[in-house]
Amino acid sequence: MRKFIAGCIQLTSQREFEPNIETVGALVRRARDSGAEFIATPEVSGMFEPKRALHLEKARSEADNPFIAACRTLAAETKAFLLIGSTAVKLDETTLANRSFLIDPAGEIVARYDKIHMFDVDLANGETYRESALYRPGEEAVIAALPWCKLGMTICYDLRFPHLYRALAQAGAEVVTIPSAFTVPTGRAHWHVLMRARAIETGCFVIAPAQWGEHAEGRKTYGHSLIVAPWGEVLADAGEGVGVITAEIDLDQVAEARRMVPSLRHDRRFAPPQN
User: Fold this and answer.
1) Entry pTM
2) Is the pLDDT score of 71 beyond 80?
3) CA-to-CA distance for 275 and 261, rounded, in angstroms?
4) Catalytic residue, candidates 8, 71, 149, 156
5) CA 36: distance to chain centroid?
6) Domains (range + CATH), the chain
């Protein structure tokens, strides 16, 4: 079992749970009907609420989260592995986790990952993001077991920290997920090149479901969900709009890419530069 079909769903998440549950359900079923055995949703699939106070008010604990419950039911219904790219999980009255979940075909949560790197930036177009004001960053890299391979779980801004992906690959990951909600300016400039770079430098398949379109309070996301092969080829690109992409994941390509460029085995210690 060295091959499987992966699917990414691309959506425009709303600021309430219910419409996202409905849309994700329809798209996951479409991906399953297209043959996908592993299906991934974007970052913040459960709720895209830009206002901090409202986000804290609406967020739920993992046990009480209606989006997580709906996705567990959906995985059991479709008999697919389902990756919730992420949804906000309430930790206490002032703090959330941006958490990704892997759900098996029985509807059981088999792995969790909390986003490590916080997107705290001021963009040239005037947009400001302060994830650390709302989310508690994760502290642990996560590898999960799939029937076909080991899966490295990451989220969005993690993409810009290549040492995380190197560590995952060296620990055995052959596929990495990078569910995202990239802004339009950074997406146009960096999305494709960074996703291909992470695949090439690790010899991993990259599965990157993405948010697309205009959300509450005028927030806009880039789209272009991607599935990238270990040699850097883009196997599927969702472009703009809500929809589904699928591609065959042939794990023999991982071994071949790493044989041709065995850089994961060539790390050397070095002294840091002196100021």
Assistant:
1) 0.96
2) yes
3) 33
4) 156
5) 17
6) 3-263 (3.60.110.10)
